[in-house]
Specification:
Length: 231
């Protein structure tokens, strides 16, 4: 799926600046209507390191009523979480009716980083595809709309962003040894992504792959897709 993504799409900053407030207004109205119907919303972001997940989330939420949503950055599980089923820490963050939750990384870590780094046994991550599909189906049956984004950039653009972060004192905190290690395992991640898309791109919770080479296009595309999927 990733090989078919057109990464050449460009949105000039001037066009972005004009479209963003229009989309913000439409999103706010659409979301308030959606959440008023015994519904809730779960939006998750996956993608390459430095693909712009944080920036997309910031633009998605910056004009929303902060009382109706939460953002959760998903890091390594703590001791309590490790002692439970891997989906437990996500179940406890499922929003009630009338609220939205946004995940920066998600339960798909089971079939990505945990698979590649060996944190999950082969039998564990192989059965996780069905577990995840069932988890998402249960959310949807309870009125939770699930929107899944994957932000895609080229290896060359990722390297450019890595070097920019490493050489900029104001952005140095955004680059870690883990980022470099993940880059060294690019082919393993490509294989894991392909299998993830093939086995979890369902009718009730499809993947939205966003061309993120141009950050302005990515941010607008994310908001547009959210509006489309909650109308």
């Amino acid at each position: 799926m990733l090989s078919a993504v057109d990464l050449s799409i460009q949105v000039p900053k001037e066009n972005y600046s004009k479209q963003l407030p229009i989309l913000h207004a439409e999103l706010r109205v659409s979301l308030e209507k959606f959440l008023g119907k015994k519904k809730s919303l779960a939006i998750l972001f996956e993608g390459w390191d430095a693909a712009g997940k944080g920036g997309a989330i910031k633009r998605l939420t910056e004009r929303l009523d902060p009382r109706i949503y939460e953002v959760h950055g998903i890091a390594k599980p703590n001791e309590e979480e490790l002692a439970r089923h891997y989906l437990w820490r996500f179940w406890k963050r499922v929003p009630p009716w009338g609220r939205a939750v946004i995940f920066d990384r998600s339960w798909y870590g089971r079939v990505l980083v945990e698979r590649i780094e060996g944190f999950a046994l082969a039998a564990e991550w192989q059965r996780a595809y069905q577990e995840i599909n069932e988890f998402e189906a249960q959310l949807i049956s309870h009125g939770v709309r699930v929107i899944k984004f994957f932000l895609h950039i080229s290896p060359a653009e990722q390297m450019r962003r890595f070097e920019e972060r490493q050489n900029n004192p104001l952005k140095g905190h955004k680059i870690t040894e883990e980022d470099w290690r993940n880059r060294d395992r690019l082919n393993e991640y490509l294989e894991a992504y392909d299998e993830m898309f093939a086995r979890t791109n369902t009718l009730h919770a499809p993947w939205n792959i966003v061309a993120a080479e141009n950050k302005y296009h990515a941010r607008l595309n994310v908001i547009e897709k959210c509006i489309e999927m909650i109308k």
